[in-house]
Design goal:
The structure is a single chain. With 343 residues, this protein is α/β, with parallel strands linked by helices. The chain is built from 15 helices and eight strands. Strand 4 and strand 5 form a beta hairpin. Helix 10 packs across helix 12. The two termini are 40 Å apart. The C terminus is likely disordered.
């Protein structure tokens, strides 16, 4: 078994020895070990994810490689944290002779390894979408800089809480930008601003996703002036209630907006086909048939009274504040997740 001594090994001064004897310092040392000399076949280990490995290899960044945690028992190097890291480096380098930095534990039993593995994420605080976005801004990454500039160009700001003029659906902004590009995100925000002037709740994840869906589906058939006129005359709380009554997630909002946009007029001029919304939906949704053929036929029938917006009195019914989907993106709405291309 080949091992490599770490660069600049720790100087064993009295001060260092005192620090290493501190009960809050793990009893570990670091070595470079060839991948072929590492073992990760323990029963408690999770299965390797080829998809995760392929994605990490495609976006490989050497500075994101963490030391692999290894328990050395009876001369065998058992990986108990970092088996995906090992496989990513092996795949990227093309050799299992490539060494990786390892944090070596010499005094763990098999049961102790399994316990550490089971509880390693118990007290880890994940970064929020906004924290990741802000870090990307500090790193001057182009995508986040462009999204910030688009948002600010409309007098809005990206913030943690939803309030007038604030966008806290950071994940949704990134998804729309990455999937459809600059112009679609810009158009989505323009329609929101001219229609609701930054009103609280008008920049939620569901509304942003719904408008993006409509723009992609209808293109130039969706007129900004009619959108502002017809959607803007409906109280936002009423639109939200109607959307929630139709179906969960962004598709409920898309339906409610189409109905409001079409109004009660029977003339086909400037109307948006509900059927087209779902025909387009099948292009983006994989393995989901949200509506059968009979229902599709009903969507385009001449009698659309069944789709008219309910005449709700927004002053007599308190509306629950719209929940932003950033912290549970699409978790409750699998049909929306599939449409957005999220697995």
């Amino acid at each position: 078994m080949d091992t490599y001594k770490p660069y600049g090994d720790v100087q064993r001064t009295d001060s260092t020895m005192d620090m290493m004897s501190n009960p809050f310092v793990p009893r570990v040392h670091f070595e470079l070990i060839r991948i072929r000399d590492l073992v990760s076949s323990q029963e408690y280990q999770r299965s390797l994810s080829p998809q995760h490995i392929a994605k990490a290899v495609a976006d490989f960044d050497l500075n994101q490689i963490n030391p692999v945690k290894v328990s050395r028992r009876l001369g065998v190097n058992y990986v108990f944290n970092g088996q995906h890291t090992v496989e990513i480096v092996a795949e990227k380098s093309g050799s299992r002779d490539t060494p990786v930095w390892c944090m070596i534990y010499d005094d763990l039993s098999y049961e102790h390894e399994a316990d550490i593995f089971a509880n390693q994420q118990k007290y880890v605080k994940s970064l929020s979408p906004l924290e990741i976005f802000q870090a990307n801004l500090e790193a001057k990454n182009n995508t986040q800089l462009m999204i910030r500039d688009i948002v600010q160009s409309y007098g809005l700001k990206i913030a943690k809480t939803a309030s007038s003029g604030n966008v806290n659906a950071v994940t949704t902004l990134e998804q729309i930008y990455n999937k459809y590009g600059f112009h679609t995100l810009d158009h989505v925000l323009r329609l929101c601003v001219i229609t609701w002037q930054g009103e609280k709740g008008s920049l939620s994840s569901n509304i942003l996703n719904a408008i993006a869906k409509l723009l992609v589906t209808y293109g130039d058939s969706l007129r900004d002036d009619l959108f502002k006129e017809r959607i803007g005359e409906i109280p936002l709380k009423q639109l939200i209630r109607n959307a929630k009554e139709r179906r969960p997630g962004a598709m409920g909002y898309a339906e409610a907006i189409v109905i409001a946009y079409n109004g009660k007029k029977k003339s086909p001029s400037a109307r948006l086909s509900m059927q087209k919304l779902y025909v387009s939906d099948k292009v983006y949704i994989t393995g989901i048939n949200p509506v059968d053929e009979e229902e599709l036929a009903v969507f385009d029938s001449t009698d659309e009274s069944q789709y008219e917006l309910d005449e709700l009195d927004s002053d007599t019914e308190e509306e629950q504040e719209e929940e932003d989907d950033d912290y549970l993106p699409f978790a409750q709405h699998p049909e929306e997740a599939a449409w957005a291309g999220i697995k």
